[in-house]
Every structure is written in C-alpha cells, then in structure tokens.
Design goal:
Distance between the termini: 64 Å
CATH topology of the largest domain: Neurolysin, domain 3
Radius of gyration: 25 Å
Helix content: 55-70%
CATH architecture of the largest domain: Orthogonal Bundle
Oligomer: single chain
Strand order of the largest sheet: 3-4-5-9-6
Number of strands: 9
Number of domains: 4
C-alpha cells in the first residue's frame, strides 16, 4: 500500500500526507493490531513479556505513530477534508480501544504474567506496565456482562465523537468572528505589534484598515490595552459567548447539548464500572485518593487565598475610581485597569518588556538554561519535513553526546490552528529487539508572529508559556524508561503531569536566568536592572485574584462531575454561579458562557481533573524550593531532578518520585509562599 502513514520513516512525512491517506492507513493498522493480539493470545507456551507484551507494543506503536501526525495536523492546519478524515477514524479507534480493554483472552494473559514466578524478575517499568494494564482492563469493563460491555463501547465511541465536535465548534466559532475597523482612533492604546497584525489580517482579506479577531493574541491585547471601553466590551462579549446559546452569530456551533450529553455519558460510564460518579472514575488513575481529598485541597486553598484576592480587587476598584473616575468595574475592564495600575504603581509596561524578549533571544536562552540545569545541548536541524513554514526542528543531546530526543517547535498563531499552547507526543521512547526508539515531541504555541523585519516579541507571560510547554517536552524526551506504556509522559498519574511543566516556569523569574533569556531586540542591550526589579516586584501582582480564578475553574469542573444527577438537568451554570458566589471576588456577567469553550474538560483530558494544575503546582513549588536552597543552577540538584523525576516517566508512582527527590511529601505552604499569599 503506497501510503505515507504506513512507512517506517523515523519522522512523519507531513508534506506527503493527504486526507485520502488517513482512513485507509488507520483501517490497515487496526486490523494489523487485532491480528497480532489474536496470534499472541493463542500461543500454547506460558505467557511472558517477550511473547505477549513486546509484539503487542510494537504493533500499537505503529498505530500511534500513524495517528499522531493525523491528530496533530487536525489541530494545526485544520481544513474540512482533514477534519472529515480525522472524525471518520475516531469511532474506529475508540472501538478498538474498548475492544482490547474487554478482550478476556488478553486480560487473562496479562493476569497470568502478573501471577507467574517470572513477574518478580521483570524490571520496575515492566511490572508497572502489567499492573497498569490490569487496572485499565477493569476500567474498560472487563468484568461487565455482555450487555453492559456493549453499552460501554457505545458510550466510549459517543464520548470520542462529542469531544471532537466540541473542539471543532470552539475553533469554528472563534474564527467566524471578525471586526473590520477603518477608523484608527478606535484602536487607541493598542500596541503597534497588534495593529500590524490586524492590518496584515485585513490585507489577507483584500481590505484596507484593520481586522480584529478572537485569536488569543489579538483578544488579549484589546482587553489589556484598548482605551475604547465599547470595543473592549464588544470583543469580550464575543469571546465569552463563543459556541454558545446566547450568541446569535455562532449559534450554529452551540455546545450546550454536547456539554449535557458529555456529562450524562461520563456519569453513565462511571456507574457501569461501579463508581458513584465520574469524579471517582477520574481519580482511579490519579494521585489523589478520594473526591473529598480533592475538594478539601481546593477549598483549603480558596479559603486561604480569598482574603488576598479581595484585597487585590478592592485596590483595583479604588485605583480605577481615583485615577479614571470609573465607579463600576465590568468584566471587560479588569485587564485594562490592572495593566494601568501595574504601569503606575510599579512603573512597569508589558509592551516595554516585550522589547527585551525577542524570540531570537528567548529560544536560545531557554536552551542555555536547560544546558546549565541538565548538561543538555540542543541543535537545530534545517532539513526536515514540516506542516507549515513557521515550524522548526531540534535535537537534544546529553553530556555524553547521546541523542535523547527531538522536537518540533510551532510558535505562532494563524488561521485554522487551534488556540492555546500544548505539548504532544509524536514518537515515544521504547527499547526492544528492534533497537532504541528516540522520543519526538510537538511543542505548539499561539504567539503573535513576527512583523515586518522584526523578530517576534514575546510578552513575559508568553515566555512563561514557552518554558511551561518545554517542561512537558523534557518530561517526554528525557525518559530512560524503555517500555512504551510508561516511558516519558505515558502512564504518569494525571495530577502529576503538570509538575515538570510548572517547575520550568520558575526560571522565568530568576535573575540569573532572565539575564540569559532576554536582550533588546534592536540593540541586544541587557534587560535594565531597574526593569528587572520592577518585574520581580510585580511577580505576584494580583496573585490572589489569579489563584481564586483557577480554583473556581477547578471546583466547577470537579463538582459538575461529582454531583451530576441523571434525573435532573446538568446545572452547569448554576454550579458555576454557586462556586463564584462563595469564592469569587469579580462579578461575571450573566451572559458569560465560559464553559461552552472550556476545552480542557469537555474536549481534552482534564475532565474531573482540572484541579491537577494546582495539585501539580504544589509539587512544582516545593520541588523548586530545593533549588532555592541549593542554587538555581546547582548541577547536583539538577541531576537529581533529572534522575528522579524526568527520566522515570510513569514507571514509578509520582508521590514516590517526589519523595525520592525532595526527601519528604510536599507542603501546601510552598505553593502559597511562591504566590505571595503567605510570607
């Protein structure tokens, strides 16, 4: 079969992949996987790692390496043909996954290995693979009766389709909104970089003037800098009602029913498996033991943070009234007056900061930081196959000049590209009879692209985002675990996945690191000491408000899954309102439909798991406190983090890894201290 998705190429041949290749390739590989499972489970000799797990992992790796580029291009160069082919495969992949999870012969084979004398001779990663597989069999309904298993399969397929449709609706609703402006006075206050981007967007549509969109760089710039309150209100309203029932312009992409159906099906799935609710099912693969433990963790943080959040908001209100005679702070005013307040009190302008963080300095600076931490060398490769001209490619070598990983870097926003930032695996590490397979990652962001002859200028928040995603990438690429199911990010408990990413953010606030990653884009002049001091002073500016906002999202996500009642309506927004009434300090307009574009929980992997960001932030803050004590570039501390956290993947429980590195379990005080909420 002449299909680029079926080649044995080390890297995906992106330029050769056509929508017509996708479904035939996946069909072929699924049948190949089924055939291998049938053959391996029918052998007469005792089951072992070599005769069962190895051949199954090998063929499923082929499937993963074909599906990975398909899923990726669906996110970064989306069009109708790709979307159609992608969606055609989702139910087939879901069916296969469930089919394997309910394969009694396969389950019995894994169970036999786990109870055999040879199990104790397997290494830690192999044992964890077997244990996780047995757990996942149970979570796939292996013990259900045939009728229940059939219903489980139906639910799984429908959940897959609904999640994809949710994300499509958000993407389409986001890109459907445009505002053409010809009167430049309406753009007062908006930075030149955003104006240039808006002008370029208008020219693409053969229009004069400026074209505003809901792509995040444009949206955030308007919310933060636009002097015209009517313009801020208009774009806030459009953004906050995307893909919802209250926006007549995007009603065709309304996610209301999809959200209700997702919650109902998740609840039904959990009940089928013997759990009381989906929150309990979600925790079956996480560090947290019980729903109450999660609720207590979040509410404890919220109670300890609310006073600081209220103080932050009261100060903002007072500032807006005194300086701008604004008696009421609307939702579309928060970012604007916060930036004005930051500029006045701290004499700190985010746009001034951008000048010192050109991508041409930040990216090599990031590589220098990881070199000082872990002894890694990162080299750019120019000759590779890519999906867009913006994309760059790199290789990572360790101190012994051993190739440890490779990654694609796709930094800039553009049409038909999903918003946000993420890391995803392209190829996972495994080591077996066919040799060592080097891990490959996708690192994707949506920053403002370069304008004219200038490099892309990053806000400090964008620098933090880049470090965050690179932390995920290092977790995936630096693994030394040889077994596919637990190498890199695979098999890592979900509420620990954000540990390496949030951990990397800390270097964006350290003076020795900032000196490495910054320099004026025109002159190369270092970040002025005065500006650096202002940035550090502003690190925890409105940190109470930000903490409460994240806890609001986390509690909302967890409670709608914990308290779902199939006999009643889903109560999505009544739940959100109740949480806001209890903890929020900012009034959200009644028309706001935030949940309708909350892709993390309705389309991503964070359902009943958004709390993981705060849970992992606790781990990351406490882990970093050891670097604060021993030196932020202490080579031994860096080597210990590499050895105990990054290299171990999912082969050992996350809490054990943390204790191995830190010498104790984490303390919540580290999180509160790093956010300036307690001293």
């Amino acid at each position: 079969m002449n299909n680029p998705l079926l080649t044995s190429a080390t890297l995906p041949p992106f330029s050769e992949i056509k929508p017509s290749h996708i479904e035939p390739a996946i069909d072929h590989l699924l049948e190949e996987c089924r055939a291998i499972v049938k053959i391996t489970t029918q052998i007469t000799e005792p089951f072992s790692w070599e005769n069962l797990v190895n051949p199954i992992e090998k063929t499923e790796d082929r499937l993963n390496k074909a599906w990975s580029p398909v899923s990726h291009i669906n996110s970064v160069v989306n069009n109708n043909d790709i979307r159609e082919a992608y969606n055609a495969c989702l139910p087939k992949l879901s069916q296969y996954s469930t089919e394997m999870g309910q394969n009694k012969a396969l389950y019995n084979a894994y169970f036999e290995i786990s109870n055999s004398p040879s199990f104790s001779r397997l290494n830690q990663g192999q044992q964890k693979t077997i244990q996780n597989a047995l757990r996942d069999f149970e979570l796939s309904g292996i013990n259900l009766n045939p009728e229940q298993q059939c219903r489980y399969r139906e639910i799984s397929q429908e959940l897959s389709k609904l999640s994809s449709k949710f994300e499509e609706n958000v993407l389409d609703a986001t890109h459907a909104w445009k505002k053409h402006i010809q009167d430049e006075t309406l753009l007062a206050g908006i930075p030149e970089t955003t104006r240039t981007l808006a002008k370029t967007t208008a020219e693409t549509d053969n229009l004069s003037g400026w074209m505003l969109t809901l792509d995040f760089p444009c949206y955030l710039a308007i919310m933060t800098y636009a002097d015209n309150p009517a313009l801020r209100q208009e774009i806030y309203t459009a953004f906050a009602t995307r893909a919802s029932d209250v926006n007549p312009d995007t009603i065709q992409w309304d996610n209301t029913k999809i959200m209700d159906d997702l919650l109902a099906l998740r609840h039904e799935k959990a009940r089928l498996l013997g759990f009381n609710n989906y929150a309990e099912l979600s925790l079956a693969t996480k560090m947290a033991d019980t729903p109450q433990q999660v609720i207590d963790f979040l509410e404890n943080l919220a109670h300890k943070s609310k006073e600081q959040a209220q103080t932050d908001f009261d100060e903002l209100q007072q500032f807006a009234k005194q300086e701008y005679q604004s008696d009421n702070l609307n939702a579309w005013d928060i970012n604007y007056f916060s930036e004005k307040m930051r500029q006045q009190q701290l004499e700190l302008s985010q746009e001034e900061i951008r000048n010192y963080f050109p991508a041409t300095r930040v990216i090599p600076g990031l590589f220098t930081v990881v070199n000082k931490l872990y002894g890694l060398t990162i080299n750019e490769i120019s000759n590779f196959d890519r999906w867009h001209s913006d994309v760059r490619f790199f290789e990572i070598y360790d101190q012994d000049n051993v190739l440890r990983g490779k990654f694609y870097l796709d930094l800039y926003a553009r049409p038909n590209k999903r918003g946000g930032a993420w890391m995803d695996d392209c190829v996972s590490r495994k080591n077996g009879p066919d040799g060592l397979q080097t891990p490959v990652a996708y690192l994707t962001c949506n920053f403002t692209p370069p304008a004219n002859d200038d490099p892309a200028l990053l806000s400090h928040n964008e620098v933090i985002t880049l470090f965050h995603e690179f932390g995920h990438g290092l977790h995936h690429m630096l693994t030394k675990v040889d077994h596919l199911s637990v190498s890199g990010i695979n098999g890592v408990q979900w509420d620990a996945v954000e540990l390496p990413s949030q951990f990397m953010e800390n270097w964006c606030w350290q003076k020795p690191a900032l000196e490495i990653i910054s320099g004026h884009y025109q002159t190369g002049a270092p970040l002025p000491e005065s500006l650096l001091e202002k940035m550090l002073a502003a690190k925890n500016f409105q940190s109470g408000m930000f903490m409460i906002r994240q806890l609001e999202f986390s509690l909302f996500d967890f409670q709608i899954h914990l308290n779902f009642d199939p006999t009643k309506s889903s109560n999505i927004y009544s739940t959100l309102s109740a949480i806001r009434d209890q903890f929020s300090v900012v009034t959200t307009p009644a028309f706001n439909r935030f949940a309708h574009s909350f892709s993390h929980i309705f389309a991503g992997g964070y359902a009943a798991g958004y709390y993981s960001y705060k849970w992992a932030e606790l781990l990351s803050c406490d882990a970093f406190s050891r670097f604060e004590d021993e030196g932020i570039f202490n080579p031994q501390t860096g080597a210990d983090f590499l050895t105990h956290i990054l290299e171990k993947g999912g082969s050992i429980d996350a809490m054990d890894l943390f204790v191995n590195f830190r010498g104790r379990e984490p303390s919540i005080d580290a999180l509160l201290q790093h956010n300036g909420i307690i001293s």
